Amino acid sequence: HHVVMSKELKLGYSTGYWSAGPPKGALEGVKEAERLGFDSVWTAEAYGSDALSPLAWWGSQTEKVRLGTSIMQMNARTPTAAAMAAITMDHLSNGRFILGLGVSGPQVVEGWYGQAYGKPLARTREYVEIVRNVIRRDKPIEHHGEFYDLPYTKSDGRGLGKPLKSTVHPLRNEIPIFLGAEGPKNVALSAEICDGWLPLFFSPKEDGFYRKCLNEGFAKSGESNKADRFEVATTILIVPGDDVEKCADMVRPFLALYAGGMGARGANFHFEVFARMGYEDVAIKVQDLYLAGKKDEAAAAIPLAMVEDVALVGPPDKIKGELDRWKETCITTFLVSGPPMVLPLYADLIKG
Known about the structure:
Strand content: 5-15%
Structural class: alpha/beta
């Protein structure tokens, strides 16, 4: 039995990654989300557009929605640079900024940023601690860890660094930090040191597993009722239409890319998520097809059940019925994406 939490589900609008250029209709989508009373608007970054500039540009056209990064890659900026951005965005938006962080994967970290992937959990812990200290602004920043050394102490430096404090006074001394995480330890870490979790490929049938991870983190956080204020904002793919299989076909290539096309064999976190859901055999097959360059066949190998575990496809009534399962989970915010004209329908399906 699930105890249905009587929480008010929030809606967020995800503008997603840019492809070859800026996404068409993104600004209209952001304005429509605000008009419909959405709680938040989000941007992303991989190795093309960055997450901050579009959020500032589009966010300047809004007054109420919170503005989040989903996610800002940690390797792209030092912790102090991330904190500077957060303080700046928070002032410009009048206290509406959410700093969503994530480690990304080894391909991007080592290929694009030219940095060692190393130990993501330990790095995240240090990173968040420094960001929080900068934003708290109660003392100059001094941190000597495994990954970050401020002021710099190694012998190849000049030894002239001194502990500094942000010249700008933060608008809020606590800016919410959300963590993009998939593995159990990372999910627990988000509950321990952050204010929210940004899952990828959340499935209602994994809710018990994730709640266990979150509860481990809450217990370590030293905050007695942290679970009450903690947010879980998950992207949800909604494809409404009469033909369930045709709708599912819109989702299959995306799942195939993540299950089989990202990361090397044995080093794909997305693969592990699907394996936990009971689709290890499918994921292996998809990976084999993907690595052989057979993308269409890889997509076709994704069964409808796997699509329906992570997405909502088919006629609106079917979607409405399936949403009940999602509403009983630890999710607090549904992040939807698409052109402006579909947002009223999504809002109606989720809120209605």
